[in-house]
Amino acid sequence: MSTGVSTWNMNLLDIGPMYPFPGTEMLLAIIGIATWVIWHIIQMKAENRQLIEEENRFSDKAELARAMRISNAETLNEALKEHKQGS
């Protein structure tokens, strides 16, 4: 793939744009920043909702103690085995 330019020893304004969609940089930057901010807002809401669910779930001391026992296993399989045996 070639640019069609055989020498760069000339006025570059005569060549024209060297990349697609010139003049849309500001619009694309605004869209990118807005998307980034919206993603963060959605992510914060999801994480807060999950935190509230976990706080409600583990407000029961017995449930919290059981979760702590399960988490001491080295693997998830061990945790599930212990959980099934304890039930």
Tally of helical runs: 3
The percentage helix is 55-70%
Order of helices and strands: HHH
Beta strands, count = 0
Query: Gap between N and C termini, in Å?
Result: 67 Å
Largest sheet: none
Unreliable runs: none
Radius of gyration: 29 Å
Oligomer: single chain
β-sheet strand percentage: under 5%
What gross morphology would you assign? elongated
Q: Structural class of the secondary structure composition? A: mainly alpha
Query: What's the pLDDT, averaged over the residues?
Result: 81
Structural commentary:
This protein is mainly α and 87 residues long. It has a domain at 35-87. The protein is 63% helix and 0% strand. It contains three helices and no strands. The protein has helices at residues 25-57, 61-71, 76-86. Helix 2 packs across helix 3.
Structure summary:
By secondary structure, the protein is mainly α. Helices cover 63% and strands 0% of the residues. The protein has helices at residues 25-57, 61-71, 76-86.
What's the helix and strand layout?
Blueprint: H1 25-57, H2 61-71, H3 76-86
Helix pairs in contact: 2-3
Brief descriptors of the model:
single chain; 87 residues; mainly alpha; elongated
